[in-house]
Amino acid sequence: MTLDLAAIQAAAGRLQGQIERTPCRHSKTLSKITGAEVWVKFENLQFTAAYKERGALNKLMLLSETEKQRGVIAASAGNHAQGLAYHGARLGVPVTIVMPKTTPFVKVQHTRDFGATVVIEGETYDDANAHARKLRDEQGLTFVHPFDDYDIMAGQGTIALEMLEDAPDLEILPVPIGGGGLISGVATAAKALKPDIRIIGCEPAMYPSFTAKMRGVAAHCGGQTIAEGVAVKQVGELTYGVVRPLLDDVLLLEEPYLEQAVSLYCNVEKTIAEGAGAASLAALLAYPERFRGKKCGLILCGGNIDTRLLASVLTRELVRAQRLASLRIIGDDRPGLLSTVASVIGAMGANIIEVNHNRLALDVPAKGAEFDITIETRDAQHTQEVMEALRESGYPPRVV
């Protein structure tokens, strides 16, 4: 067996009316920022906020009646779990999801709320996966792999059919790679419909599993990436076989570009992207020369990001843009000093966010005081103007 356009078109017929037909829109602002002509496919608008519903539903609809009655099982800590749980409940198919102990509680609760039986087992995904296969054998359930399955790939490939229907002139598709289910389906459909379209894989630099397999070397994977949805240590065997002949290149993405992409989606498109969901935009930011002037289709493949992480990413982006700056000022420890410094900052139109006052640091004179003042400004130039005003007032700051 392999994957072909006919299987993807058949999947599209099954999914019609069962999932969101998400919009694919041209973004003037992202186009201006990146230098490419950017079209965004908003898969974060699916009910479970991720594209994974497509493959999960296609798989469920292809089960025999006996398999549907017995139920399915999967190991997942993310979007696959929620997509399978939601559509399993809709179709009356019992769903069991095995999750590792490290799964955030909110994801466990969402999966339960969608109607699945959740089993918490093991410290890692591999542990959960092994337990899921054990339960499959014991209970006669059907195992639904999150990516290494032709039916799953066919469901994900329906994204490309819709994109090329909405934007037939697309020239290049940068697609996130984790296990390879999404890019396998998308590449198969896109290349069949438009052979000259370029398919570019996007991997987090901390988890270069596909890149390593292409080069025939061991993958050195690990670290805390915000793109945990594609932080896979080993790409699928079936997916690799499908997509490798169709792939034009793979790009590795460092964390700052992933963070910037999440922030841009929020601030420019007013929509929420998880780290993996923003990977294709991150590729345009990290490698602008590869995409400049090209008609690029970006799949915003998911929006399930922890709210605290999102807040941290947005704040860190303000720091990178120097709209938030922490300034250290050392002066005489006398009444009115802080008021004077605050007056200078206020007169320049900046906002004081936080003040830390330190008299005990040994590198500060005994009669001196050290202030760490976090300020909010309009932009990097405004920050420099505030710092210059402090220097002229006799309080030279340094950025912490």
Structure description:
This protein has 400 residues and is of the alpha/beta class. The protein folds into three domains: 5-51 and 149-316, Rossmann fold (3-Layer(aba) Sandwich), CATH 3.40.50; 72-140, Rossmann fold (3-Layer(aba) Sandwich), CATH 3.40.50.1100; 322-399, Alpha-Beta Plaits (2-Layer Sandwich). The chain is built from 17 helices and 14 strands. Helix 9 (181-193) runs parallel beside helix 11 (237-243). It is elongated, with a radius of gyration of 25 Å. Its EC number is 4.3.1.17, 4.3.1.19.
Percent helix: 40-55%
Say how many strands there are.
Answer: 14
Largest sheet: 4 strands, parallel
Q: In the CATH classification, which architecture of the largest domain applies?
A: 3-Layer(aba) Sandwich
Low-pLDDT windows of residues: none
EC number: 4.3.1.17, 4.3.1.19
Subunit structure: In the native structure, TdcB is in a dimeric form, whereas in the TdcB-AMP complex, it exists in a tetrameric form (dimer of dimers).
Pfam family, one: ACT_4
Family: Belongs to the serine/threonine dehydratase family.
What does this entry show, briefly?
The protein has 400 residues and is an alpha/beta fold. 44% of the residues lie in helices and 19% in strands.
Main attributes of the structure:
3 domains; four-stranded parallel β-sheet; Alpha-Beta Plaits; 14 strands; four-stranded antiparallel β-sheet; Rossmann fold; alpha/beta; elongated; 400 residues; 17 helices; 44% helix
